[in-house]
């Protein structure tokens, strides 16, 4: 008789309900991020801790008896959900836009598994993972349990106003179904989001053959680069997980306060993570050049509307980087600074939420020759951008930039 396989466990938070594996042929999975038994305690998640080793667990959506990831079964209860003790009724079709789903993601789950080369689920280190480090596993059980409450990160203090004669530009990168922007001079820079997605897959990315304008831009900067995360969804930070070179170049990772994902408690980044709990009034990067970063205060928090929004201004021209917070959600925000943002006139917008249907409402007016950058790929489920959003931005006076099938991470100058 073969020896009994060792039973292992990770203590996880639900990261993404309807995810896809990072393999060459992506398959539907439920994504968790967790820690080992010895790190599953309050001490590991204090403000002063140096962080813990975190691991992604991609549970095969079909063998886990979870609902299929495609419509219309999304959100329906599943009578066979015995392995996953998750109340599927709590989740809806678009969990990232839903208050109840966002709250349910805050729970802890114990995932018991064994290593099995034929297993259809997998686990790997959250950061610095390469294809070779992924382990195939067989998931045995998933159950919810009480766990530590992660403490807030240390507060972010912005750099001082500067009157140095530097010229800053705003760049957007074609990253597929993700989002990534950079404001930089010849000396320093600020990255807003570093996510990529189909067709820029992990397999393609780690193979390293693609042109990578973000790297080319930041590696030559002699001073620090700060990173701002619009919100916790992985399509906004996945490149950090794939790429140590990016992580090593960044001095500070600024995240919105109260972020659910425990990824930023990982030992690779935690000592450099800071949080923003209220909006930073506009500060001067250089003469006639300003940056404002808002912390939204949504009346109904969802994964997408609860985060950071940046506005870059140079020589009287403005650009907005809203992440996945739509103009309509900004309008509802309790912070008047945020609710007024769609009333401004913009030279450039990075269209919220990859140009979903909701991003077609309350589109702000464009300045002459304004550009609307749609950051979306060819993901069959999301099908971003939607024609309604492209049409609405056109009506507001923007010329649209859409490339759903980038072969490289190419920069587009927005301002
Ligand atoms: Zn997104
Ligand atoms: Zn999102």
From the structure above, extract its key features:
single chain, 415 residues, mainly beta, Metallo-beta-lactamase, Chain A, 2 domains, 8-stranded mixed sheet, 8 helices, globular, binds zinc ion
Number of discrete domains: 2
Count of extended strands: 21
Strand order of the largest sheet: 7-13-12-11-10-9-8-21
Spell out the helices and strands N to C: EEEHEEEEEEEHHEHHEEEEEEHHEEHEE
- Overall CATH class of the largest domain: Alpha Beta
Helix content: 10-25%
Summing up helix and strand content along with how strands pair, one would put the structural category as mainly beta
**CATH superfamily membership of the largest domain:** Ribonuclease Z/Hydroxyacylglutathione hydrolase-like
Rg, alpha carbons: 21 Å
Bound molecules: zinc ion
Biggest β-sheet strands, sense, barrel? 8 strands, mixed
Structure at a glance:
With 415 residues, the chain is mainly beta.
General description of the model:
This protein is mainly β. The chain folds into 2 domains: 8-145, no CATH class; 154-413, 4-Layer Sandwich (Metallo-beta-lactamase, Chain A), CATH 3.60.15.10. It is 12% helix and 32% strand. Strand 16 and strand 17 form a beta hairpin. The longest helix has 9 residues, at 387-395. 48% of the residues are buried. One zinc ion (ZN) binds next to loops.
